[in-house]
Design a protein that fits this description.
Blueprint (H helix, E strand, L loop, with lengths): L1 H9 L13 E12 L2 E9 L10 E2 L2 E3 L7 H13 L6 E6 L3 E2 L4 E10 L12 E8 H6 L3 E7 L23 E10 L2 E4 H13 L4
Parallel strand pairs: 1-7
Antiparallel strand pairs: 1-2, 1-4, 2-3, 2-8, 5-7, 6-7, 9-10, 10-11
Length: 206
């Protein structure tokens, strides 16, 4: 029976994101450090000559490549390359929730601890500078929130005659909250702010 063959083929299958093989896959590390006796979050500022998002605040990380056996390995590898430290300088690496952006990117964030902030030797090819923000400040600061609206724009020649409603089809408009943190002249926003907010919510103290 064909149905039995189908179920046997699918049995034990682990689901993934539909179309994942076509997505841009990125891993990042949210680094915690100890500074002046207090826990801080470390951020990078991308180098001004970078082709994508120059001078923007981010976490260390980057695109997964074929040599990365896991998402965690990618996050650690990228962090060591960008901050000039060894893998052994990073401890307690734990996954956060991954997210899928509206532009076909899957981001796998992790949190970890960099044991000695004085060992940092940022790679000038990728990193303009680094800065830290006290975790206590971030926990006490509500981010500014603004909405971005994504509207559907079908391409020329779209077959409206094949869908109910045709050109008057009621496309759904998506609303996304854009978050902003400001600290000492630095602006943390975009996916970095979303990951940061997620981390703060997960670790909120009663």
């Amino acid at each position: 029976m064909e149905a039995e063959t189908i179920f046997n083929k699918l049995k034990g299958r682990k689901p993934k994101i539909l179309g994942e093989e076509d997505f841009f896959r990125v891993s990042v590390l949210l680094p915690l450090v100890e500074k002046d006796g207090e826990t801080h979050v470390l951020f990078e500022v991308r180098a001004s000559h970078m082709r994508r998002q120059p001078n923007e605040v981010c976490f260390p990380g980057g695109k997964m490549d074929d040599k990365d056996p896991t998402e965690m390995h990618c996050a650690i590898r990228e962090t060591t390359e960008e901050l000039g430290i060894c893998e052994s300088d990073i401890s307690n690496v734990i996954p956060l929730d991954y997210l899928v952006s509206a532009f076909g990117t899957v981001i796998y964030p992790f949190v970890g601890f960099i044991d000695d902030i004085h060992k940092l030797r940022p790679n000038p090819d990728e990193v303009g500078n680094t800065f830290t923000v006290p975790l206590s400040y971030l926990r006490q600061t509500e981010p500014e929130r603004y909405k971005i609206n994504f509207e559907v724009q079908p391409e020329d020649g779209f077959p409206f005659d094949l869908i109910v409603g045709g050109e008057n089809y009621n496309w759904q408009t998506r609303h996304v909250d854009e978050l902003f943190y400001q600290y000492d002249g630095n602006v943390i926003w975009g996916l970095t702010a979303r990951i940061l907010t997620h981390f703060l919510e997960l670790t909120a103290t009663e």
